[in-house]
Write a structure and sequence with these properties.
Layout lengths: L8 E3 L6 E3 L4 E5 L5 E4 L7 E5 L3 H10 L1 H6 L5 H15 L3
Antiparallel strand pairs: 1-2, 3-4, 3-5
């Protein structure tokens, strides 16, 4: 009989839905005080998870839930960079 592996779930800070970790994108607040997208999921720092959609990023920005999750202030410039990185991560063309 095959063993059933447990799928790790994480909550999106935008829509607040629990989803498999592999479907979400990790945003990390590094010890060097940078906020960036972690495609490997292994970077050092405090992480938060977002669905790969602009609407979830916009919701997280509006509610400041990403700032709370990462325990840091995030300037609008960083949100714009995250938006661009998110588009590249979703559509690597």
């Amino acid at each position: 009989m095959a063993t059933v592996r447990k799928v790790p779930l994480r909550k999106c800070v935008g829509c607040q839905e629990m989803k498999p970790k592999r479907e979400l994108i990790r945003v990390v607040h590094t010890p060097e005080d940078e906020v960036l997208i972690d495609l490997t999921g292994k970077k050092n720092g405090r992480g938060a998870y977002l669905c790969p959609s602009e609407s979830c990023l916009a919701m997280a920005q509006k509610r400041k839930s990403l700032e709370r999750a990462l325990k840091t202030n995030i300037p609008d410039v960083v949100y714009a960079q995250l938006s661009q990185q998110l588009q590249k991560a979703v559509n690597p063309s």
